[in-house]
């Protein structure tokens, strides 16, 4: 019995470690955009640190001494570097800046689903999970006609997706109706 408990604990910790590693990988590659909520910490500088700040419609953040800092399209690491360099320029000698994504911007599900609308993104979001969040398919929904428009692509530039394809924050998922 103790061996089974130990094995269960090892499996649980391994699963949590893999999930954390995947989330860290997503966060490192993630490109910031309008509606994301981030934290900015400057070690030893409370006045330059923000626990929660939502990026504006232009995906900028007002920052002391630096003005409006453009975050759109940057990774959290790139934003850290930008703020660090700005603070080095006459303000701090060796600033240590950390940027974390607290809440990802929403993604949207529309078309033949029970509850179309915007939903909170979580790393690992797939088309299947998005449909489940939206209350499932309607009776007339197609099982194959599913399209996504990426937040960083031109309007109307939709592409067909499979049920297990991963979504990104800002995506617009459309489930079309079936004729039969």
Number of helices: 3
Distance between the termini: 54 Å
Principal-axis shape equals elongated
> Helix share of residues?
25-40%
Structural class: alpha+beta
Taking all residues together, what is the mean pLDDT?
Answer: 87
Describe the structure.
Residues 25-101 form the Polysaccharide export protein N-terminal domain. Residues 1-21 form the signal peptide. It holds the Pfam family SLBB. The protein is an alpha+beta fold. It has two domains: 37-103, wza like fold; 107-177, Outer membrane lipoprotein wza fold like, CATH 3.10.560.10. It is 27% helix and 28% strand. It has helices spanning 2-29, 76-88, 127-133, and strands spanning 37-42, 50-54, 60-63, 67-70, 97-103, 107-111, 117-119, 141-149, 159-160, 172-177. The strands form three sheets. Strands 7-6-10-8-9 form a five-stranded mixed β-sheet, covered by helices on one side. It has a three-stranded antiparallel β-sheet with strand order 2-1-5, covered by helices on one side. Residues 16-23 have low confidence and may be disordered.
Quick overview:
With 180 residues, this protein is of the alpha+beta class.
List the helices and strands and how they pair.
Elements (H helix, E strand, L loop, with lengths): L1 H28 L7 E6 L7 E5 L5 E4 L3 E4 L5 H13 L8 E7 L3 E5 L5 E3 L7 H7 L7 E9 L9 E2 L11 E6 L3
Parallel strand pairs: 6-10
Antiparallel strand pairs: 1-2, 1-5, 3-4, 6-7, 8-9, 8-10
Organism: Spiribacter aquaticus
InterPro entries: Poly_export, Poly_export_N, Soluble_ligand-bd
GO molecular function, one term: polysaccharide transmembrane transporter activity
């Amino acid at each position: 019995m103790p061996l089974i408990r130990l094995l269960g604990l090892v499996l649980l910790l391994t699963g949590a470690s893999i999930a954390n590693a995947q989330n860290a990988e997503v966060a490192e590659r993630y490109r910031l955009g309008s509606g994301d909520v981030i934290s900015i910490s400057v070690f030893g500088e409370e006045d330059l640190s923000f626990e929660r700040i939502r990026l504006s419609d232009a995906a900028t953040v007002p920052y002391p001494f630096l003005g409006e800092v453009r975050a759109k399209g940057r990774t959290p690491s790139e934003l850290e570097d930008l703020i660090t360099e700005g603070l080095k320029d006459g303000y701090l000698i060796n600033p240590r800046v950390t940027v974390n994504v607290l809440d990802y911007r929403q993604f949207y599900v529309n078309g033949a689903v029970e509850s179309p609308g915007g939903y909170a993104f979580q790393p690992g979001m797939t088309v299947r999970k998005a449909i489940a969040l939206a209350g499932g398919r309607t009776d007339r929904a197609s099982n194959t006609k599913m399209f996504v428009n990426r937040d960083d692509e031109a309007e109307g530039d939709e592409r067909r997706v499979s049920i297990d394809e991963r979504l990104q924050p800002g995506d617009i998922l459309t489930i079309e109706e079936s004729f039969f």
